[in-house]
Design brief:
The protein is an alpha/beta fold. It is built from eight helices and nine strands. The protein has a five-stranded parallel β-sheet with strand order 2-7-1-8-9, sandwiched between helices. A four-stranded mixed β-sheet has the order 4-3-6-5. A hairpin with a 2-residue loop joins strand 5 and strand 6. Helix 6 runs antiparallel to helix 7. It is globular. Bound molecules: guanosine-5'-monophosphate. The site of guanosine-5'-monophosphate has 12 residues, from strand 5, strand 6 and helix 4.
């Protein structure tokens, strides 16, 4: 009695919002599993297969599409990216919580998924900087990107922020500790949601 099924916590937000740090920190505490996506993109030098992504060949990716192995997949910058059912479904069934760092397009696809298990597990959060100025400061503050790259990211971020109202929850980023406390509180509160308690 009072067992529950797991939560699928989708986290989106512009680059510089801090969403990846939040997801990684939550996974480090052991409170949620960080779902690893599959991609056909080549690994970057620091990336590890099975940790950052599952790096697949195009044929392998396509056969997984045919086999119905993905909850969603999308083509982004000429590469395919997708969320594998195997990263999510068993865990949710066992009552474990899964967190996903996903772009707005991917989140739309997960929301459109008609699997009742996914629908019941779904919680979506948009993380946003407090203002356009703050976003610019964060993108510039990384000091890793050229002016052009910053301008493109800025525009993409503003476009993404237009879609924040699609999400049930909005976290306006303040400082790292406050953001994480709120993020963790959302997970704890959602664990009390009766819709997932058997
Ligand atoms: P990157 O190649 O820089 O790691 O990621 C490129 C884009 O692919 C990012 O916008 C990222 O959010 C998106 N992406 C990563 N994993 C997935 C996924 O599983 N599904 C979808 N739809 N997009 C993803």
């Amino acid at each position: 009695m009072h067992e529950r099924s797991g939560i699928l916590l989708l986290v989106s937000g512009p680059s510089g919002s801090g969403k990846t740090t939040l997801c990684e920190r939550l996974a480090t505490t052991g409170e949620a599993y960080y779902a690893i996506s599959a991609t056909t993109r080549r690994p970057r030098p620091s990336e590890v297969d099975g940790e950052d992504y599952f790096f697949l060949g195009m044929d392998e990716f396509k056969s997984k599409i045919t086999d119905g192995d993905f909850i969603e997949y999308a083509e982004v910058h000429e590469n395919f990216y997708g969320t594998l059912k195997s990263e999510v479904v068993d865990k949710i069934n066992k009552g474990l919580d899964v967190v996903m760092d996903i772009d707005v397009q991917g989140a739309d696809l997960v929301r459109a998924c008609n699997d009742p298990l996914i629908q019941n597990a779904l919680v979506d959060l948009f993380v946003t900087p407090s203002s356009e100025e703050e976003l610019r400061n964060r993108l510039v503050g990384r000091q890793t990107d050229s002016e052009d790259v910053i301008a493109t990211r800025m525009q993409n971020s503003l476009d993404e922020m237009q879609q924040s109202s699609k999400y049930s929850y909005l976290l306006v980023s303040a400082d790292k500790e406050t953001d994480f406390a709120k993020f963790n509180a959302l997970l704890i509160a959602e664990r009390l949601n009766q819709s997932r308690i058997k």
